[in-house]
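Lecture notes, unit on protein representations.

Consider one protein chain, 346 amino acids long.
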Amino acid sequence: MKADKSAISALSSLIDSAEKIVVSSHTHPDGDALGSTVALVEYLRRSRGKDASGVICNSPGRDIAFICDGNGNITFHDSEPEKAESLIAGSDLLILLDCNGFSRTDSLESIFKAYSGRKVLIDHHMYPERDSFDLVFSETEISSSAELLYGILLRMDDVAMAPENLPAESAAALLTGMTTDTNNFSNSVYPSTLEMASGLLRAGVQRDAIIDRLYRSGSEDRVRMTGYMQWQRMVTLPSGAAYIVIRSKDIEEFRIVEGDTEGLVNIPLTIGNIRISLLLREDPAGYFRVSIRSKGDLSARELAAGWFNGGGHFNASGGRLYIGKDIASPDDAVPYVEKAIMEYLG
């Protein structure tokens, strides 16, 4: 990582001077968001003796909820709004992870924008909202926010570049977050990513247990849904693109919950001639969530930014397709996607 000693020292000083610290991340937290949040909260509490809490706008999917199982220091605004807001109001340092600014914190956005304490951003996405923060750690050529946080924590005086000096809870959460954001080392992997994994394994993290929880503990409904979507809903185009559109009726029929569709967007890319894959999932709030993955030098980020109100990484991005704004009705999602692909790929 590229953070210099002065930035690390500044963060350490902010931590030392804070009475109460809140750590947060983006809406609909994925494994990287939840893993890095848990890792930092546990480090602050166990290594620095701080009153630290995680506050995230909504609860995680069942596939990653184990990351904070039994952890009473993580609060979700959708289930405990009064507690979440009280924790934020009572803190004097806010650390935001895995999103480039408050615009991605949904129900907490206005609260964070009005926050009067010191604010730190630690993120690996493009275009960080630097003016909103007192201190920013931003690096895009890195696998995940978990990896960026790992590099920062290693350089703290109490850790002294020794992963075994991290709390065990932090180490496990960091490896989990990085594993999910790289799709189990299949994308966005750098030499530093493998160095991180090696260091955490030497420190005693049980990777096999993490893999079991992430990829071998799904529900029967999820397995059947995944097969159905590939057989009945996956559309491949001669241009080398593929897409899957999940409608509200599918969510009801297969009892889909948060996290069940994680990884589905990657499956079409296992087809040799498919270069870009899109997954759209209808949301009751009036839009489709859009996930985009690509191979090689084809930019998922450009497609997300140009047609789906989004952005992200070069080969892994996301966005939204708004009903009533971008399309007239949910039935228009398929023709919109095909038009967007045709215009993008030419």
